[in-house]
């Protein structure tokens, strides 16, 4: 069951308030622990978002206003322009998950489409919903649109969410012409997937047209009379620039009269019409041109028992008309009548039981790269470990350290010359304070002799002398690995400058492998758009035997479980099932049998081709009775040549994020970086190493 839903639209003034009010009212009948969250608001810091204020005040939410949003639209676009989308999404995920942990239900609202780019906002809403892992409720405004236009927009909008892995629970057609709701609902039901709940909410004058208060606020007008009647709704607008007899003939119910302040005849005529049984009710008046009525007119108005709101503005009549036509009605927190109407419309138009059932039944298997990375960082923070980085003078290492320190993910030791590191930090313009990390130059370390002696004792039977041990301890890879071995660090990450062999040789020499593990191997966590797959081995074992393949698969399954991925193992080959023959296929077939024998609790299929492993349709055709085919999460390659090329091809062609390689099988975590790694690669590898250390 999910405990959240994402309300979104495609254009401004869609009427989200009606659905938001109705939904929160529905939820309030089931729990009092409701949170409302709008990741990006379209007002500045000094101004409060209208809908957040409406929901908070009407439902008396205990949630502080500051917890109801993450970014202003200006701040969000600034981060996007700086290519900091990852920071943006991570901050939104973090605040959302805090709300989710402390609430029974979170209603999340998308942007208002009042920003700079409609396309950017639409794609942003899809991305946020996807990364939060929650279903969408799409609200379409049907105002001034034909049925065919509405249906086409519904199809394209729904497809955009579904194709990106976001489930659509419901689609709401709002502001539908009265009497046309059933017909439009029928057409939408035929056009959209059957599992989507369709609702149609009719247009309602009291919600669609502005009040005198909204006109006052939008125009910045002064109120001369009738302040207690500013809730009057405006259904029609007339300009009083004609003779009184012609003006009176054009009056309708709830009419706003716009006239220059010196037209006393129109002012008096409108007020008289308002109290006459033969004319419609006057909503109010706007006096244009910065002119005031004569004193005698003012005196007359003051003596009337019934006075409509009379506003005064500086703008000329034509400009006033233009501005008032652009005013969109809103529901404010103090307008109890509009709130009641909105909730009533929701209750009449929405099948509340069907909506509740869909929310309860929702389940998502989507795991986006950002969701995965956020969960990793959160896990690492939960039990901070100490990681040593031997290549402390490298630019990418220091850039990653800057981010790790800012987010308080791990404790860090850098190996290198402190003065060189300080100069690099200044050159890169980083905010990193070296007081927040430990910097060690191996040659001057107080533990140098202790480490050299320990290495000598460990390797003297291999012909190592004490002087050779001292020489090796000047090597940062040996020094860093010894820190891990002695328990002075919980894990090590290296390889940005050094080769894989240089990085892992010391670990193989004296950290050794875990009991029962004969093969040290590696995995990459391939963060694809809608899932995370584990690829092994793509970095260490060139041509594994059947026994080694079984070791790699079992270790990879444990690595997947460690990071919250259910292991379904595909032992890859160039044929699926029993169809193929040959030495390489037999090697994979034997490895699969060994896994089933050693670990009957694991789901494994092999030999199997890549397409049959990951594509549900292909998997069903080639291996119809398999628990793994079409849904594999752990993919084991038959050799290093295949594995390394495949992970790089997937990474380059799909834009997938490849986290790793993560070494598996060692007693303590030591991980290798590629010499072509980026700052993000370093950051992610340190985080994974910290999680491995938690499990050690």
Automatic annotation (TrEMBL):
Phosphate acetyl/butaryl transferase domain boundaries: 371-690
UniProt keyword annotations, A-Z: Acyltransferase, Cytoplasm, Transferase
Keyword check for Flavoprotein: no
InterPro entries assigned: DRTGG, P-Actrans_bac, P-loop_NTPase, P_AcTrfase, P_AcTrfase_dom1, P_AcTrfase_dom2, Phos_Acetyltrans/Butyryltrans, PTA_PTB
Top-rank lineage group of the source organism: Bacteria
Gene Ontology cellular-component annotations: cytoplasm
Keyword Oxidoreductase: no
Localization terms from the record: Cytoplasm
Primary localization class, coarse: cytoplasm
Domain (DRTGG): residue spans on this chain: 214-326
GO biological process assignments: acetyl-CoA biosynthetic process
Enzyme Commission no: 2.3.1.8
Catalytic reaction equation(s): acetyl-CoA + phosphate = acetyl phosphate + CoA
GO molecular function per UniProt: phosphate acetyltransferase activity
Pathway named in the protein's UniProt entry: Metabolic intermediate biosynthesis; acetyl-CoA biosynthesis; acetyl-CoA from acetate: step 2/2
UniProt function note: Involved in acetate metabolism.
Record's comment describing the protein's domains: The N-terminal region seems to be important for proper quaternary structure. The C-terminal region contains the substrate-binding site.
Subunit composition and interactions: Homohexamer.
Family recorded in the similarity comment: In the N-terminal section; belongs to the CobB/CobQ family.
Name of the protein this chain belongs to: Phosphate acetyltransferase
């Amino acid at each position: 069951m999910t405990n959240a839903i994402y309300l979104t639209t495609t254009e401004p003034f869609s009427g989200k308030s009606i659905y938001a009010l109705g939904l929160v009212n529905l939820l309030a009948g089931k729990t009092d622990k409701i949170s409302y969250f709008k990741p990006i608001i379209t007002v500045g810091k000094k101004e409060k978002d209208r809908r957040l204020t409406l929901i908070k005040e009407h439902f008396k939410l205990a949630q502080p206003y500051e917890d109801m949003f993450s970014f202003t639209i200006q701040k969000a676009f600034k981060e996007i322009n700086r290519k900091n989308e990852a920071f943006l999404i991570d901050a939104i995920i973090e605040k959302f998950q805090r709300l989710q942990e402390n609430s029974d239900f979170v209603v999340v609202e998308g942007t208002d489409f009042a920003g700079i780019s409609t396309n950017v906002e639409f794609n942003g809403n899809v991305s946020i919903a996807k990364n939060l892992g929650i279903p969408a409720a799409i609200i379409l405004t049907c105002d001034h649109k034909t049925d065919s236009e509405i249906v086409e927009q519904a199809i394209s909008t729904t497809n955009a969410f579904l194709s990106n892995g976001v489930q659509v629970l419901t689609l709401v057609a709002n502001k539908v012409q009265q009497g046309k709701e059933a017909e439009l609902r029928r057409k939408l039901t035929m056009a959209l997937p059957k599992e989507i709940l369709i609702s149609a909410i009719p247009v309602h004058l009291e919600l669609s047209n502005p009040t005198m208060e909204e006109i006052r606020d939008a125009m910045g007008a002064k109120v001369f009379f009738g302040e207690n009647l500013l809730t009057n709704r405006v259904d029609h607008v007339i300009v009083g620039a004609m003779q009184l007899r012609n003006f009176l003939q054009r009056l309708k119910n709830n009419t706003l009269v716009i006239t220059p302040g010196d037209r006393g005849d129109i002012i008096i005529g409108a007020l008289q019409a308002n109290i006459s049984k033969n004319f419609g009710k006057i909503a109010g008046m706007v006096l244009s041109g910065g002119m005031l009525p004569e004193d005698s007119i003012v005196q007359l108005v003051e003596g009337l028992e019934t006075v409509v709101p009379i506003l005064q503005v500086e703008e000329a009549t034509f400009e006033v008309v233009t501005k008032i036509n652009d005013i969109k009605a809103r529901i404010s927190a103090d307008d109890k009548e509009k709130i009641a109407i909105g909730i009533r419309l929701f209750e009449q138009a929405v099948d509340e039981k069907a909506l509740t059932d869909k929310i309860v039944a929702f389940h998502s298997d989507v795991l986006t790269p950002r969701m995965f990375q956020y969960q990793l960082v959160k896990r690492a923070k939960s039990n901070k470990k100490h990681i040593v980085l031997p290549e402390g003078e490298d630019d990418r290492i220091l850039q990653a350290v800057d981010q790790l320190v800012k987010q308080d993910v791990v404790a860090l030791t850098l190996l290198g010359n402190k003065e060189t590191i300080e100069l690099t930090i200044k050159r890169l313009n980083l905010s990193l304070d070296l007081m927040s990390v430990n910097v060690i130059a191996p040659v001057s370390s107080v533990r140098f002799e202790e480490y050299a002696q320990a290495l000598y004792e460990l390797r003297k039977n291999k012909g190592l002398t004490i002087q050779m041990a001292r020489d090796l301890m000047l090597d940062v890879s040996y020094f860093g690995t010894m820190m891990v071995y002695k328990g002075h660090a919980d894990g090590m990450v290296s390889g940005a400058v050094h080769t894989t062999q240089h990085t892992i040789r010391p670990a193989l020499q004296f950290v050794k492998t875990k009991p029962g593990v004969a093969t040290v191997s590696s995995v990459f966590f391939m963060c694809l758009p809608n899932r995370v797959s584990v690829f092994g081995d793509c970095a260490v074992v060139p041509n594994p035997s059947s026994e080694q393949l079984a070791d790699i698969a079992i270790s990879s399954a444990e690595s997947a479980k460690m990071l919250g991925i259910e292991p379904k193992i595909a032992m890859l080959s160039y044929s699926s099932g029993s169809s193929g023959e040959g030495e390489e296929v037999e090697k994979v077939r034997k490895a699969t049998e060994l896994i089933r024998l050693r670990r009957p609790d694991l789901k494994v299929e092999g030999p199997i081709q890549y397409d049959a492993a990951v594509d549900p349709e292909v998997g069903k055709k080639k291996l119809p009775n398999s628990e793994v085919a079409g849904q594999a999460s752990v993919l084991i390659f038959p050799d290093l040549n295949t594995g390394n090329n495949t992970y790089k091809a997937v990474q380059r062609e799909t834009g997938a994020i490849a986290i790793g390689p993560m070494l598996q099988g060692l007693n303590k975590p030591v991980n290798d970086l590629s010499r072509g790694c980026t700052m993000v690669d370093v950051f992610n590898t340190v985080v994974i190493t910290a999680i491995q250390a938690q499990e050690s």
